[in-house]
Write a structure and sequence with these properties.
This protein is of the alpha/beta class. The protein has seven helices and 14 strands. It has an eight-stranded mixed β-sheet with strand order 1-14-13-2-3-7-6-12, sandwiched between helices. Strands 4-5 form a two-stranded antiparallel sheet. Helix 2 crosses helix 3 and helix 5 runs parallel beside helix 6. The two termini are 28 Å apart. The relative contact order is 0.18.
């Protein structure tokens, strides 16, 4: 279900501890105008954070995807202030600090390195409930040991699990972004800041199970909603702007229609972009 309205009005109507996973990206540092419908400051953020903490189930996860504006040559550091608020004020565990690396040519800058990433803060309430960690192929199966440095500075050999064909992925996730790369849904590009369908896919399968309830309180073009439908999760979305709300509804309706004609999993994968 996708709600049209301000999340500050709709979040308080959701029951306590009713959400398994929050996957969202707020209008951080007002870097986009979103049809002039968004307003963002730390006071608004703190109210939303308190509500997200309230509705999150014990063991649930919040994936908070943000970055910082650069003003007069200095980054705002807003993302870290928000992370510390979740951790210190809401008493959530900072389970991981991940990086969303955009495989694209970034904007040029005369006196600093190119920036082409966003932070993905992973918070959990108490002990994390679900961790379906993504596996990747092991590069060197013949190697039987590695070296590891102890707190006292000494180096010791650490055995590999010999014969394992896969290992747990690292926490820097790389995605192709841009037109027809983040998604093949042309209507989605009417929104100024969509994230890749594969990114939503990877977080949903990592931190939730089938039939779990996923919340995106800044649903935008509806990427999270679409992937939840494909991956058999229940979904709650909130969008303030009516234009983006209609785009999200249309993408979700198209996904439901296509799913009714696709039976096996290989066909279902054709519904979203895999890079």
């Amino acid at each position: 279900m996708i709600h049209l309205g301000d999340c500050l009005d709709i979040l308080p109507t959701l029951p306590d501890q009713s959400i398994d996973l929050v996957l969202t990206s707020p209008p951080y540092d007002n870097l986009r105008n979103y049809n002039n419908s968004s307003e963002w400051n730390f006071n608004i953020f703190s109210k939303i954070a308190i509500q997200l903490n309230r509705v999150l189930k014990d063991g649930g996860v919040i994936v908070w995807i943000v970055n910082d504006a650069t003003i007069k040559g200095s980054e705002t550091g807003t993302s870290f202030k928000q992370a510390l608020y979740f951790k210190d004020k809401c008493k959530l565990n900072l389970h991981d600090t991940m990086i969303y690396y955009k495989n694209c040519y970034p904007f040029s800058c005369s006196n600093r390195y190119y920036q082409n990433f966003e932070y993905m803060f992973i918070f959990c309430k108490n002990k994390i409930k679900t961790t379906n960690l993504i596996k990747v192929p092991t590069k060197n199966q013949r190697k039987t040991y590695s070296t590891n440095r102890l707190p006292n500075g000494k180096t010791v050999k650490t055995k590999y699990e010999v014969g394992k064909k896969t290992r747990t992925a690292d926490n820097i996730w790389k995605y192709e972004v841009g037109y027809q790369k983040s998604t093949t849904d042309k209507i989605a590009y009417k929104h100024p800041a969509i994230f890749p369908e594969k990114l939503a896919h990877d977080h949903i399968i990592s931190w939730s199970n089938k039939k779990d309830v996923v919340l995106d309180c800044f649903v935008g073009s509806g990427t999270t909603a679409k992937m939840c439908k494909i991956l058999d999760r229940k979904f709650i979305g909130i969008e303030k702007d009516k234009t983006y709300f209609e785009i999200a509804k249309k993408r979700l309706a198209n996904t439901i229609w296509k799913l009714s004609y696709l039976i096996n999993q290989e066909n279902i994968k054709k519904l979203y972009t895999i890079n």
